[in-house]
Specification:
The chain is α+β, with helices and mostly antiparallel strands. The protein is built from three helices and two strands; from the N terminus they run H-E-H-H-E. Strands 1-2 form a two-stranded antiparallel sheet. The radius of gyration is 12 Å and the shape is globular. It starts with 12 loop residues before the first helix and ends in a 5-residue tail after the last strand. The N terminus is likely disordered.
Length: 84
């Protein structure tokens, strides 16, 4: 894994799989904070809270294969300065 990479899009599939079963746990990435999804969260609600689009969240989180299926306890990358 390239430690200088700031973009989670650069994570390789095998690295994501090694991160405790998909995206249940994510490795640290510079420029991003790791947010644990809570009961009732949707990507739309999260995007409204941090002032970005769902498309932005999806671009930061390539591990999400279906934007309608996120689960409480899983993790997302959000910008470090995101207030949530």
């Amino acid at each position: 894994m390239n430690d200088t990479a700031m973009n989670p899009m650069e994570l390789k599939t095998e690295e994501m799989e090694q991160a405790a079963g998909g995206y249940r746990k994510l490795p640290d990435k510079g420029g991003f904070r790791i947010y644990q999804i809570r009961k009732g969260d949707t990507l739309h609600k999260i995007s409204l809270r941090i002032g970005c689009s769902v498309s932005n969240i999806l671009s930061w989180n390539p591990q999400i294969t279906n934007s309608n299926r996120i689960y409480s306890g899983d993790y997302l990358y959000l910008p470090e300065d995101a207030e949530i």
